[in-house]
Amino acid sequence: MSVDGFYVSLKNAANEDMRAYVSRPSGDGRHPGIIVFQEALGVNSQIRGVADRYAKLGLVAIAPDLFHRVRPGFETSVLNMDELMPLIRAMTAEGFAADAIAAHRWLISEGGVSPEKTAAMGFCMGGRATFIANSELPLAAAISYYAGGVAPALLDRASSLHGRHLFFWGGRDKGIPPEQHRAVADALREAGKKFVDVEFSDCEHGFFNEQTERYNEKATKQSWAMGVAFLEDALDVDLNKA
C-alpha cells in the first residue's frame, strides 16, 4: 500500500503551535488512526518510518513534535545524553496531555478517522505520553514501549485508562527495573483494566530503534507482530499485511 507523508501545524489546548508528521494511506476512504509518540531523539527518520509502517497497514498516523516548547523541530540519531536529558526533563504530564488531545483532534477531524477507531503508541518518554493519552482520550488501544516514568509517578492514572494497553519492556533496561514493570501491571490489575505485559529478557532500553546499537532485530519483529494483532483486535479491523 502506498502512503503519503507530510507535515501539518496544530494548535494545542494551550494555543501553542506544534508541528506533526502525518502518514496516511493513499486514496480515498476512512481508516483507523494512531498517534505515534517520539522517543528522546525527536520525530526523526526512525519515528517517521514507524508512522509510515502504520500507514502501509492502513492507518492514518500522526507523530507530534513533543519538543515544540523547548526545541521545535529537533531530531537526531545520536544518543548524546548531555543534549537529550534537558529536553526530557522539560516534558510534563500536562504538556503530553495537551499535545495528545491536539493530535487526536486532528485525526478525527482533518484525518477523517472514526473516534472509536483511534489508538496511540510510543517509545520511552513517548511510551509515557501514550499512557497519559490513554487516560485522557477515548482510545480503543495503546502500546507503550519501555515507558519510563509511569511508575510510580503516573500510577494514579491507571483507573482512568480507556482502551486496552500493551506494554513492552527490556529485561536489561537499567533505567526501568523489574519492580517498575510489576508496579504498572499491579496498578492496572487493581483498577480492573485490560492489558498485556511483555518483557524481552535479553533486550536493553530502546531495542526497537534500528539506528542505535541497542537494536534487537528479533524482539523488534516479534513486538511489531504482537502490536499489529493487538490493534486489529482492539480496533476491530483487518490491517493490510501485503
Describe the structure.
With 242 residues, this protein is an alpha/beta fold. The protein has a single domain (3-235), classed as Rossmann fold (3-Layer(aba) Sandwich). Helices cover 34% and strands 21% of the residues. It contains six helices and eight strands; from the N terminus they run βββαβααβαββαβα. The chain has helices at residues 45-57, 81-89, 93-108, 125-136, 178-191, 217-235, and strands at 3-11, 17-25, 33-37, 60-64, 118-123, 141-145, 164-170, 195-200. An eight-stranded mixed beta sheet has the order 1-2-4-3-5-6-7-8, sandwiched between helices. Helix 1 (45-57) links the parallel strand 3 (33-37) and strand 4. Helix 3 crosses helix 4 (125-136). The longest helix has 19 residues, at 217-235. The protein is globular and about 45 Å long.
Helix run count:
6
CA-CA gap between termini:
7 Å
Amount of helix: 25-40%
For the record, what CATH class applies?
Answer: Alpha Beta
- Contiguous runs where pLDDT drops below 50 for at least 5 residues: none
Q: What is the H-and-E element order? A: EEEHEHHEHEEHEH
Radius of gyration: 16 Å
Strand arrangement within the widest β-sheet reads 1-2-4-3-5-6-7-8
User: How does the overall form come out from the CA principal axes?
Assistant: globular
Superfamily (CATH H level) name: Alpha/Beta hydrolase fold, catalytic domain
- Number of strand elements: 8
Described by strand count, sense and barrel closure, the largest sheet is: 8 strands, mixed
Structural class, by secondary structure, is alpha/beta
Residue-averaged pLDDT: 95
> Structurally, how many domains make up the residues?
1
- CATH-derived architecture: 3-Layer(aba) Sandwich
Strand composition percent: 15-25%
